[in-house]
Write a structure and sequence with these properties.
Number of strands: 14
Radius of gyration: 19 Å
Largest sheet: 7 strands, mixed
CATH superfamily of the largest domain: Succinyl-CoA synthetase domains
């Protein structure tokens, strides 16, 4: 992953209402938005951004494009992402939700073969506070600092980032992995990046309950991450008998062969505690645990 204020950003679906709104916000934040894509509507300028019909045309105009953010409709999103990959773009953020699962699977196969980073689907994107925004985040909740935030919890991300900011714990980066059942980049991928990032001194991970991968994440943190990590698991106060009743959760657990039965969130918490990872009981507790972890470190 390589995202700096000099990174060239493309907006696919720029004439979609969300696409145009957030393209303007990103540009106002300082992001280098170099072009937009809207098939059949090329040749115009929107918010000072040149619009093209094809990604290839945008690349010819702007040179090497580092990252694209996609606001296309669900049934168009895969083709848009594949077009970006074919044009040589190796970092893709999918804001679009509801993409057909088989489309996502096909896209991830192509991404793996071409070493392309996919964030999403249904992601609010990435923000490096004070420097660059490639997403839909509400920027007032973030402040520059040294806490890396990795989430898969939708708008709860804002509550966590605001709590950190109010506690004077700014963020080095915040990444929303997306809320769909099948997503691109994983917690482990971003933990590996932030473990090596000199600007990140501590990491906060916010994950929803799904009963499938938390033990593996806990082991990875214990063995490969030499920085303080604080975890908040969404839904940890849900009654045990109501956990793991979602069909997708049960199927994912068996497909991952991570357990012989669906694990509960209590099992996941125990896995983190065995790995000596601090687990917050509520979002408001995260800042105090981060400060405690930094003091220990």
């Amino acid at each position: 992953m390589n995202l700096t204020p000099e990174s060239k950003v493309l907006v696919q679906g720029i004439t979609q209402p969300l696409g145009l709104h957030h393209a303007a916000r990103m540009k106002a934040y300082g992001t280098k938005v170099v072009a937009g894509i809207s098939t059949g509507q090329g040749g115009q300028q929107l918010q000072g951004i040149q619009v093209f019909d094809l990604v290839e045309q945008a690349c010819n105009h702007a040179g090497v494009i580092d990252i694209t953010i996609i606001f296309m409709k669900p049934y168009q999103a895969m083709d848009a992402a594949l077009e970006a990959i074919d044009a040589g773009i190796r970092q893709i953020i999918l804001v679009t939700g509801g993409i057909p699962p088989l489309d996502v699977v096909r896209l991830l196969q192509k991404a793996q073969a071409t070493k392309t980073l996919i964030v999403g689907p249904s992601s609010s994107g990435i923000i490096v506070p004070g420097k660059v925004l490639v997403g839909t985040q509400e920027t007032e909740f973030y402040s520059p600092g040294s806490v890396g935030l990795i989430t898969r919890a939708g708008i709860l991300t804002y509550e966590v980032s605001l709590a950190l900011t109010q506690a004077k714990l700014g963020q080095s980066i915040a990444v929303d992995l997306g809320s769909e059942t099948i997503i691109g980049s994983s917690f482990q991928y971003w933990l590996k990046i932030l473990a090596k990032d000199h600007n990140t001194k501590a990491i906060v991970l916010v994950a929803r309950i799904d009963g499938t991968i938390k033990a593996a994440i806990a082991d990875y943190i214990a063995n490969a991450v030499g920085k303080p990590v604080v975890v908040y698991l969404v839904g940890q106060h849900t009654p045990r008998k109501q956990q793991g009743v979602n069909a997708a959760t049960i199927i994912n657990a068996h497909l991952a062969e991570s357990t012989t039965k669906t694990t509960t969130i209590q099992d996941e918490i125990k896995a983190f505690k065995r790995a000596k990872v601090l687990v917050a009981e509520r979002p408001s507790q995260i800042p105090s645990l981060v400060k405690k972890a930094l003091k220990k470190n």
